[in-house]
Amino acid sequence: MTRIISILNYKGGTGKTTTTVNLGAGLALRGARVLCIDMDPQGSLGTWLGVRHTRSVADVMLGYADPEQCIVPARENLDLILGSHALVHAEAQLWKFPDERVSRRVLYHTMKHINSYDYILLDCSHSISMLTHNALLYATELITPVSMNYLAMVGIRQVINTLKTIGRIPDHHLKLTLVVPTMYYERLRKDREVMQLLEYYFRGKVAEPIRANVKLAEASSHQQSIFEYAPDSYGALDYARLVERVLRNDE
Ligand SMILES: Nc1ncnc2c1ncn2[C@@H]1O[C@H](COP(=O)(O)OP(=O)(O)OP(=O)(O)O)[C@@H](O)[C@H]1O
Ligand SMILES: [Mg+2]
Q: Which ligand is located closest to the Cα atom of residue 11?
């Protein structure tokens, strides 16, 4: 069965895109069939992996194209549906629907027959938008990357509030499966304290931290995943560990 995972924190710059790319690439390297969908109008996923396509997820949501026409191969076992600026237009169209229950489920209805993947990862933008709601109502799991600062903790609280709202929607069960600490400096007391807080609030759901590692930032400008760009780096090591943790959740 396909695991559909939204990657979200309402704070910007917490490592959502970095996690989507490298978790997706890592799962694909372990032999899983993976589709990553970019729900952010900035369209960073395609830029990161050096993939271009005329169609984006906006075409899927606006009914201009079938998902199959928008899927583009990025690596062995790893496909993408790109994001684009047209998502801004898609969002505006969704707000015009008379019934919010329908407009929030457009992605679910257009994608529900896509069942040939082991994992579908959705890279969400940090805005509380109709696009994010569509991602959350399509996904069954949520992974939240949290960088080591107070605002990222506030962002996660907003995610929890959203989860509560979605929990009231009949027939949709979305659960927070993992909190991923990112940009972690072990030698900083502040970071160790944030880790303790996360462990306290999300007992059993906190992944091993992804350490701050400049190779992760560099990999994007080389249009490579961390496993291609710097396979021996801390970044590759930490994301490989996250991949194993996500695979373990399969069991
Ligand atoms: N572990 C890390 N170590 C060092 N730099 C990192 C790490 N993770 C992410 N970064 C860098 O931090 C910045 C923000 O990361 P990223 O784009 O993944 O965040 P985001 O949550 O997707 O942001 P946005 O909310 O804008 O979509 C990027 O420049 C990225 O290269
Ligand atoms: Mg991003």
A: 1
